UniProtKB/TrEMBL annotation:
Signal peptide: none
PANTHER family assigned: HTH-TYPE TRANSCRIPTIONAL REGULATOR PKSA (PTHR30055:SF226), HTH-TYPE TRANSCRIPTIONAL REGULATOR RUTR (PTHR30055)
UniProt KW Electron transport keyword: no
UniProt keyword Cell cycle, yes or no: no
GO molecular function: DNA-binding transcription factor activity; transcription cis-regulatory region binding
Stated name of the protein: HTH tetR-type domain-containing protein
Species of origin: Microbacterium mangrovi
Highest taxon of the lineage: Bacteria
Residue span(s) of domain HTH tetR-type: 11-71
Gene3D superfamilies: Tetracycline Repressor, domain 2
Keywords attached to this entry: DNA-binding, Repressor, Transcription, Transcription regulation
Length: 205
């Protein structure tokens, strides 16, 4: 029983660390020392912090996983259950606009993403799953809108979902280099191309 209790406490402590870590990273600057900042926030040394994770890379992967859970809960129902193009557009833009308020998270995402293609990287599974879940949510909305006649039924839903993901990811990189870039406006431009010109103004209002 003692071993089970110790394990449960370790899991709870790890969850506490991830919750605080997401807050710390969200407001960190481009050159933030993430591990030290997070350790300070939870009252641990960097070595003590990493006791709860296999490595620094796993810590970062789990922070991004926690961030994704929060975003899914707050933003994705509107996009994945969209019955109108405006719902899909607004749901996707909401999360992109939120990203602009948490530069540290975007920076961490881009840094880890660059290393994640390696199959043995701790974040590899997360980025595969994240991409699949994101596209699945977008595809559900796209298919429903095609059935309602709001989107061209001849467009491949999966490819359109990939394009929406790629545009958002690419704009994030531009935004990291040029903070004046309006990521949401860039994605909104793509949405405006998905509907006839006579309706584009209504969708942006």
């Amino acid at each position: 029983m003692a071993r089970a209790g110790t394990y449960a406490k370790g899991v709870a402590r790890r969850e506490e660390i991830l919750t605080k870590a997401l807050e710390v990273v969200a407001q960190s600057g481009p050159s933030a020392a993430y591990v030290k900042d997070i350790a300070d926030a939870v009252g641990l040394t960097p070595a003590g912090l990493l006791h709860y994770f296999d490595s620094k890379d796993e810590l970062f992967a789990e922070i991004l996983r926690r961030r994704n859970e929060v975003d899914v809960e707050n933003y994705w129902p509107r996009a994945s259950e969209a019955e109108h193009l405006e719902s899909l557009r607004r749901g996707y833009l909401d999360i992109i606009e939120h990203n602009a308020t948490v530069p540290g998270v975007v920076q961490l995402y881009m840094r880890v993403a660059a290393d994640s293609p390696s199959p043995d990287h701790p974040a590899h599974a997360f980025f595969r799953e994240h991409g699949e879940e994101l596209r699945a949510a977008l595809m559900r909305g796209i298919v429903r809108l095609q059935a309602e006649g709001e989107l061209d039924p001849g467009t491949d839903p999966e490819m359109l979902a990939r394009v929406l993901q790629a545009v958002a990811d690419g704009l994030q990189m531009q935004w990291m280099l040029e903070p004046d870039v309006d990521m949401a406006a860039g994605v909104d431009t793509l949405f405006s191309l998905l509907v006839p010109a006579r309706r584009a103004g209504d969708q942006r209002s």
